[in-house]
Amino acid sequence: MLFPKRVLILTILLFFMSLTFSAASAGEELSFTTDRPRVEVGVDFNGAAVKFAGRAPEGSQVYVKATGPVRPVNLSKQGKKNFLWLTVESVGVEGMPAFFKVLSSNGFNHLPPDVREATGITGTYDLLMKNARVAVRNEEVKQELVGRDASAYLNALISVNEREGLYGYVEKGIKVHNGEFAGTLYLPANVPYGCINLKVYAVKDGVIVARDSGRIDIGPVGLIRLADQAAEKYSPLYGAASIGVALAAGFAVAQLFKKLNGLLGRQDSFTAGH
């Protein structure tokens, strides 16, 4: 029995469409999961190791980018005045994430420019600095810094974050075998509260062939949470209590030095400020 010509053509088209769809689905297959969706920060919190794993298209390299909340940061520049090191300038930085780490199964020099632009994974922090703003307050007037002046503060902030384990690029921090990958994202003790967004990319022959995403929520528990809630709900009282503690500590130190001076046969000295 012969099929009508139109039925035969439609059958052939559906067959090739199914093959194309299957190939595309196989090429875009990427699964990703972590061993915990939330990290709880208590009094004895010393950091955490979040393990992740998944499957990627065969022959591809895997990149995981973890980005924390974007919050303003205050920076102070120290300088020497009259033989003393004092704050000579204070600035505010906006647009920089509080946490930024990238792990890869291969390296970062192999990524073509278009993939770097699409993923924000460059091996450096140039794109972060490009989106950041630095401003100095002088007599309540906000003056934005540009060029080398802004770069100096941004590079200093990046150096501090790298030293504290908040920023970093980890080459070959992901193991890939037979299409399966696994790695560990280390969070330091001072990891910021909030959401850390995870972006996962599978790259093959210089092209992004699959992508996925996830998140890790960082939040306080126990006494840390109660203290944060008290600071937010009773901010005036909390501020007054903080000042009281500081004054009490200062009074205790003053009494200690007074006793030491008495034991050493010294008299108290007085200064006046106007």
Write up what this structure looks like.
- With 274 residues, the protein is an alpha+beta fold.
- It has 2 domains: 29-220, Macroglobulin (MG2) domain (Immunoglobulin-like); 229-260.
- The protein is 34% helix and 36% strand.
- It has 6 helices and 14 strands.
- A 6-stranded mixed beta sheet has the order 2-14-13-4-7-10. The chain has a 4-stranded antiparallel beta sheet with strand order 1-3-12-11, with no helix packed on it. Strands 5-6-8-9 form a 4-stranded antiparallel beta sheet.
- Strand 5 and strand 6 form a beta hairpin.
- Helix 5 packs across helix 6 (235-263).
What amount of the residues lies in strands? 35-45%
Q: How many strands?
A: 14
Q: How would you sum up the global shape?
A: globular
Distance between the termini: 110 Å
- What percentage of residues falls in helices of 4 or more residues? 25-40%
Low-confidence stretches: 12-27, 266-274
Number of domains: 2
Using only C-alpha atoms, the radius of gyration works out to 28 Å
Identify the CATH homologous superfamily of the largest domain: Macroglobulin (MG2) domain
List the helices and strands and how they pair.
Layout: H1 5-27, E1 31-34, E2 38-41, E3 48-55, E4 61-67, E5 73-81, E6 84-94, E7 100-104, H2 113-119, H3 126-130, E8 133-138, E9 141-145, H4 147-163, E10 167-170, E11 174-177, E12 180-187, E13 194-204, E14 207-220, H5 222-233, H6 235-263
Helix pairs in contact: 5-6
